[in-house]
Amino acid sequence: MSHRFCADLSREQHDPLAGSAAHAERNLLISWPRAKWTRNLRHAHDMPDSLIQTLDAIAADGRRINLIHRREQADDSHQIFLMPERRRFVVPREALEAFLAAWESGSPLTAWEGEPVNHDLLLCCTHGKKDKCCAKYGYQTYKQLAQVVAAHGLPFDVWESSHLGGCRLAASIILLSPVRKYGRITPQQALFFLQAEARGRRFLPGYRGDSRLEPAQQCAQLAALAFLERRYSQANLTLQDDTGDEHRRCILWRWEQDGAHGRLQTVCETTTMLRVDMCSDLDDGPSESFVWHTTEVSPA
Question: What is the pTM of this model?
Answer without folding.
Answer: 0.94
